[in-house]
């Protein structure tokens, strides 16, 4: 008997039907099912509700029910215990999710051992204040340093790689992306698409002012240090995967480097990265 953790996004429409179908499939195969305590359905029989932090270390794998945001939030928890994730898309694009809503029965392939596992590098952000770490977070997609409020101030950013100054930007901020995250915020800011099997850190300026260098692609071995200043003391913020925000003070140093953690994504359909790219991003607007 395996223990499987189910992580629903309760804000998605028809989430109850999706959770019920997943749990029925897993229980029908004789598996023990843990469901996030943040979600509760009195009509759902035979499952155990448990906080994600307690459930994930017990699980053979985790099922994400939602969109890419749900996958990103789950990835930070699952990476700590090296528990693999498979996503069911209940959102719009679902670039990171393996299955669509009508493909839930394919979860049976994981139970049968018919799957592959993609290990994806993550980034770690550390904010140093007076040489002391005051904030740390890990991110699967990206770390962003952007202006907060008021929005009319320009951000000036100096970037060093292993102690050597490599670039200076003025604009709205910068985004550091993993190869996995290169198709997210970084891409919308004009960054390149990077194959996720590679190990790099992509630096892309956000709305750079004037003629400035474009994106940089660094080795994942680099330690990137950022010093930023803004016309307003409360105008800078760093975030991990869009929802781990921390305000920067004058004199703070933000360090971005490869995280010791990694996210493990389960694949059961055998589609290549380029197939998914064509299907979910490049070809979405074609007639």
Question: How would you sum up this structure, described in words?
Answer:
With 287 residues, the chain is an alpha/beta fold. The chain has two domains: 128 residues, Probable inorganic polyphosphate/atp-NAD kinase, domain 1 (Rossmann fold), CATH 3.40.50.10330; 140 residues, Sandwich (Tumour Suppressor Smad4). It is built from six helices and 18 strands. The strands form three sheets. It has a six-stranded parallel sheet with strand order 3-2-1-4-5-6, sandwiched between helices. The protein has a six-stranded antiparallel sheet with strand order 8-7-18-15-10-11, with helices on one face. A six-stranded antiparallel sheet has the order 14-13-12-9-16-17, with no helix packed on it. The longest helix is centred in the first third of the chain and has 14 residues. The chain is elongated, with a radius of gyration of 20 Å. It starts with a strand and ends in a 5-residue tail after the last helix. The mean pLDDT is 92.
How many domain modules?
A: 2
CATH superfamily of the largest domain: Probable inorganic polyphosphate/atp-NAD kinase, domain 2
- Do you know the CATH architecture of the largest domain? Sandwich
- Helix content range: 10-25%
Descriptive keywords:
287 residues, alpha/beta, Rossmann fold, Tumour Suppressor Smad4, 2 domains, 6-stranded parallel β-sheet, 6-stranded antiparallel β-sheet, 6 helices, 18% helix, elongated
What's the quick description here?
With 287 residues, the chain is α/β, with parallel strands linked by helices.
Topology (SSEs and partners):
Blueprint: E1 3-8, H1 15-28, E2 32-36, E3 48-50, H2 52-55, E4 61-66, H3 68-81, E5 85-89, E6 99-100, H4 107-111, E7 116-129, E8 132-139, E9 142-147, E10 155-161, E11 164-171, E12 173-177, H5 185-188, E13 200-206, E14 216-219, E15 224-230, E16 236-240, E17 245-247, E18 253-267, H6 273-282
Parallel strand pairs: 1-2, 1-4, 2-3, 4-5, 5-6
Antiparallel strand pairs: 7-8, 7-18, 9-12, 9-16, 10-11, 10-15, 12-13, 13-14, 15-18, 16-17
